[in-house]
């Protein structure tokens, strides 16, 4: 029965990687959100599969907490706090064009395999699997998403995708993380959404845009000069 | 005082300030709760310094309890002191912002939550829970940074949140790798700071190193280490001044404490190379900040860069070797926290008097407001390490330890950068306070909400806060009371492991 579970887990983590790519490239804000939800579902699926494979009950908790917080509560909270029309927005000019961004993303994935190698060699064989390298890739791609996107919501989703990546690697390495910690981290994710949503709303009201990547007032000005207004 | 009570006080204050009442209610509640925390922590520190066993909070299997040692009590003491002085300063300062009752409640509720999240870091012993507390410090202070609601403040808050949370994501991975390293070591203790030290010799070195570097980079972002510092001058200059005192004076130090907790773990491992990383990253931060200081045009940014510099000094000191420079590093933690918070109060006073943040727009301050001018020049001298003030003594201790440990190059560079920073800061402050020139109308005036600028007299609470905050800066330069000395020794010992 175990090869089946391993294969299914490989499938789930592979799809996880694809969603991370999608978030780099997807222009529609709503599409980005849907990809993030899919990614969270895949993370939960991987947790359940690993839980079955190694009969680690704590991982079911990870899956349930993940589904409730990221698939149900998070989109609801985002809709409550962030301005509504943000979903209909479409980013036309990204910092990099999409093919270049995807190529760099590909290079990051290869890099993460090399980064994961020494770690994989250090742990017991049962911890080896696709989760660790793909988790690191998810972390790096999330960070990359933040650098190339300018809209507030994709930036926020990039932050949360970094956390998803850390967790995908974490469930393979640290199977017996206490449930309390899981719950606290999930709550923390929701507070992140709330605070960023409130900030986005304030920025939209005050500055008139949600393309937060374009704000650049705070710089060093030559001594004696006025700050650009 | 029970440690749970310590955490419950700011939470209770958060709820209380939300009650609708007159305008003295929220500042009053905040001040009373900060004072109670300060008294409790001072008693805790007193017991600790006397070598008595300190009671812990409630101990359930889930949380591994709440425990303190010398290092965490030292940090608690600083948090409590600065939270109190900043609460006093807030009374007068915040009334000169446009404060609707709703805004006032928002400010004080966030203030107390922020203090809560900082107090949680030293008393928690489970690293993953500490990570959550670190996240909470970012989230609770984000709305304080954006409080003035200008374009600049919002941009600063956005940068602060995004970069800090990116760092936190990397640090989370680091803590999970650390957990894995602990489980692989086969010494199944609890996942706590002391459990980690016990398990360290059997951990796979690769995992331990990887975890250390991930956490150093991740949390180093929030400490403001170069090259992850880019958000810090923005956030620490745009927030209201009492919040800047908290952010710069103590929040950075509290996060640095989490990194410092890893040093004994790496020292216990056979191949831990923590010191060299700390020294290199620390020196880069000090050096870069010293040169970046020279070209700023906003005096609050100047102080923010000085925070980057001081975080670098502390990290370098730890890197020189916890056994030789640990005491100096702890002394620097204390002197930086008390001095930097004083500097931001002084900057806040200048802002109230002149209504501008531009260095070039402030000239001849001493004639206009002797108290603000004197405070600014005193703060400048204190933070750059002029004798006989607190920072001078601690920097001297560190440099002496560096020479004793025969780290001539690192010590020489450190001394050079400190001197450059001295000239950078004093050049600007000297011109602002004594310089001749027209005190032109502030070019930035519009950025200020009404009722600010050109205050004839500083509010009494601001004066009081300045005097209270100045006391330790003066005293600790010439005399360190024996209990504090004990505490510093214990903290340095905790750093050694």
Number of domains of chain B: 1
Elements of chain A, N to C (H/E): HHHHHHH
Q: Give a short account of the largest sheet of chain B.
A: none
Strand residues, percent of chain B = under 5%
Mean pLDDT across every amino acid position of chain A? 86
Helix content of chain A: over 70%
Secondary structure: number of strands of chain A: 0
H and E order of chain B: HHHHHHHHHHHHHHHHHHHH
Largest sheet of chain A: none
Notable features of this structure?
heterodimer, A: 229 residues, mainly alpha, 7 helices, disordered C terminus, B: 497 residues, globular
Description:
The complex is a heterodimer of chains A (229) and B (497). Chain A has helices at 2-25, 29-53, 58-81, 98-122, 131-148, 152-173, 179-207. With 229 residues, chain A is mostly helical. The two termini of chain B are 26 Å apart. The chains are: A mainly alpha (229), B mainly alpha (497). The interface between A and B is large, with 56 and 56 residues.
Short characterization:
The complex is a heterodimer of chains A (229) and B (497). By secondary structure, chain A is mainly α.
Present the secondary structure layout.
The complex is a heterodimer of chains A (229) and B (497).
Chain A: H1 2-25, H2 29-53, H3 58-81, H4 98-122, H5 131-148, H6 152-173, H7 179-207
Chain B: H1 3-17, H2 25-49, H3 70-95, H4 101-123, H5 127-145, H6 151-185, H7 193-199, H8 205-223, H9 232-238, H10 241-260, H11 262-268, H12 274-292, H13 299-319, H14 322-354, H15 365-368, H16 370-383, H17 390-404, H18 408-434, H19 460-478, H20 482-496
Helix pairs in contact in B: 1-2, 1-4, 2-3, 2-20, 3-4, 3-10, 3-14, 3-19, 3-20, 4-5, 4-10, 5-6, 5-10, 6-8, 6-9, 7-11, 8-10, 9-10, 9-13, 10-13, 10-14, 12-13, 12-18, 13-14, 13-18, 14-16, 14-17, 14-19, 14-20, 16-18, 17-19
């Amino acid at each position: 029965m175990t090869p089946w579970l391993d294969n299914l887990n490989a499938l789930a983590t592979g799809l996880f990687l694809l969603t991370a790519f999608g978030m780099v490239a997807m222009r529609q804000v709503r599409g980005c959100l849907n990809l993030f939800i899919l990614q969270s579902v895949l993370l939960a699926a991987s947790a359940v599969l690993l839980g079955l494979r190694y009969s680690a009950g704590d991982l079911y908790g990870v899956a349930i907490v993940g589904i409730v917080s990221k698939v149900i509560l998070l989109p609801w909270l985002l809709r409550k706090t962030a301005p509504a029309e943000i979903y209909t927005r479409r980013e036309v000019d990204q910092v990099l064009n999409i093919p270049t961004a995807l190529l760099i993303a590909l290079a990051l994935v290869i890099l993460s395999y090399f980064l994961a190698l020494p770690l994989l060699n250090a742990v017991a064989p049962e911890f080896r699997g696709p989760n660790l390298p793909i988790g690191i890739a998810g972390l790096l791609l999330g960070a990359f998403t933040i650098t190339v996107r300018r809209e507030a919501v994709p930036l926020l989703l990039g932050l949360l995708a970094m956390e998803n990546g850390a967790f995908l690697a974490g469930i393979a390495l640290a199977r017996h993380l206490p449930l309390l910690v899981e719950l606290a981290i999930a709550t923390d994710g929701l507070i992140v959404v709330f605070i960023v949503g409130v900030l986005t709303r304030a920025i939209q009201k005050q500055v008139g845009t949600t393309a937060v990547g374009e704000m650049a007032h705070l710089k060093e000005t030559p001594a004696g000069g006025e700050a650009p207004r | 005082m029970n440690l749970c009570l310590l955490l419950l006080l700011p939470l209770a204050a958060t709820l209380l300030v939300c009650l609708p009442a007159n305008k003295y209610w929220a500042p009053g509640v905040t001040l009373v709760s900060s004072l109670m925390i300060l008294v409790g922590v001072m008693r805790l520190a007193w017991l600790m310094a006397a070598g008595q066993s300190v009671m812990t909070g409630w101990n359930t299997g889930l949380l591994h309890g709440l425990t303190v040692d010398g290092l965490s009590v030292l940090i608690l003491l600083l948090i409590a002191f600065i939270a109190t002085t900043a609460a006093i300063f807030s009374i007068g300062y915040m009334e000169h912002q446009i404060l609707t009752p709703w805004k006032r409640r928002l400010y004080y509720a966030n203030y107390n939550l922020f203090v809560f999240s900082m107090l949680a870091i030293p008393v928690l012993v489970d690293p993953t829970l500490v990570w959550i507390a670190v996240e909470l410090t970012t989230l609770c202070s984000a709305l304080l940074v954006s409080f003035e609601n200008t374009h600049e403040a919002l941009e600063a808050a956005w940068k602060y949140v995004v970069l800090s949370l990116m760092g936190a994501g990397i640090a989370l991975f680091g803590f999970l790798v650390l957990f894995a390293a602990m489980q692989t070591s086969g010494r199944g203790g609890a996942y706590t700071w002391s459990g980690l030290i016990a398990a360290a010799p059997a951990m796979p070195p690769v995992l331990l190193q990887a975890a250390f570097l991930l956490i150093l980079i991740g949390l180093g972002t929030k400490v403001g280490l170069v090259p992850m510092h880019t958000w810090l001058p923005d956030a620490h200059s745009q927030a209201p001044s009492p919040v800047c005192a908290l952010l710069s004076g103590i929040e950075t130090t509290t996060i640095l404490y989490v990194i410092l907790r890893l040093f004994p773990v790496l020292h216990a491992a056979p191949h831990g190379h923590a010191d060299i990383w700390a020294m290199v990253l620390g020196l880069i931060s000090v050096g870069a900040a010293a040169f970046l200081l020279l070209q700023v045009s906003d005096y609050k940014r100047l102080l923010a860069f000085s925070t980057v510099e001081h975080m670098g000094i502390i990290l370098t000191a730890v890197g020189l070797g916890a056994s030789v420079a640990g005491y100096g590093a702890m002394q620097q933690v204390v002197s930086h926290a008390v001095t930097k918070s004083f500097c931001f109060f002084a900057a806040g006073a200048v802002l109230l008097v002149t209504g501008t943040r531009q260095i070039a727009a402030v000239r001849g301050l001493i004639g206009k407001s002797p108290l603000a001018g004197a405070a600014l020049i005193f703060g400048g001298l204190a933070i750059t390490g002029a004798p006989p003030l607190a920072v001078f003594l601690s920097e001297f201790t560190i440099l002496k330890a560096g020479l004793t440990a025969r780290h001539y190059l690192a010590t020489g560079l450190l001394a050079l950068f400190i001197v450059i920073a001295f000239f950078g800061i004093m050049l600007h402050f000297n011109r602002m306070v004594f310089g001749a020139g027209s005190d032109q109308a502030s070019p930035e005036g519009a950025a200020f909400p009404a009722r600010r600028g050109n205050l004839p007299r500083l509010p009494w609470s601001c004066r009081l806060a300045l005097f209270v905050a100045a006391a330790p800066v003066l005293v600790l330069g010439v005399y360190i009371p024996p209990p504090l000395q004990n505490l510093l020794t214990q903290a340095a010992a905790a750093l050694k492991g």
